[in-house]
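ESCALATION

Customer reports they have been waiting on this structure for their group meeting. Please prioritize. Original submission:
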Amino acid sequence: MRHRVKGRKLSRTAAHRDATLSSLAQALFMEDRIVTTVAKAKELRPYAEKLITRARQGDLHSRREALKELKQRQVVDRLFHDVAPSFVGRPGGYTRIVKLGYRKSDAAELALIELVGRGMQDEGGKSSRAKSTKKAGTKKTTGRSRAKAPASTEPGVEAAAVVQDEAVESTVETKVEAKAKKPAAAKAEPEKKEEKAKKSKRGGLLSRRRKKGEDAADAE
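Update from on-call: job pushed to the front of the queue and completed.
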């Protein structure tokens, strides 16, 4: 019985479990949000938040202790210079876990763990990307807007535009000529078929007459 034993084993040894939590924390600090199983996310949450609290101190000892856990200098630099300063006014609760359902392959329960205020969702529950696009007032460019774009004054660009326009005009002309030729060809095709049918009928009558003549000669 595992009485008074904290944490989950995650079907791993102690060393393998520590390596798993370290790699998950590295991915979380670099990407701000990751998708994993619910059990791993719940184990990662206190592990990552303790590192963020240590990074908020910002001294050399805290950096060395974080480097012992994360093993990569670039991750530690991002944690101390980018992630930790964004949580200066927050006393705790730096991460959020959102359940996503079950995985198709092994039916494991998945969850999204993200840094609060730095992932796809902010505290209001709306995506930060949607807000940024609304503020910027970006609009999709249509064919008309592209056609109305002002031409550049560079001579090389103008020459290229002229060549492109000539190529477009030539292609349009060839298409028009091909369309004009199609009805004439369509009219000629039935006439050819009628001629072939007449020739085949004539050939059939001649062959029948020849056969009749040969039969009469044999009978005589």
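Sent to customer with the following note: Residues 155-219 form the longest helix (65 residues).
Escalation resolved.
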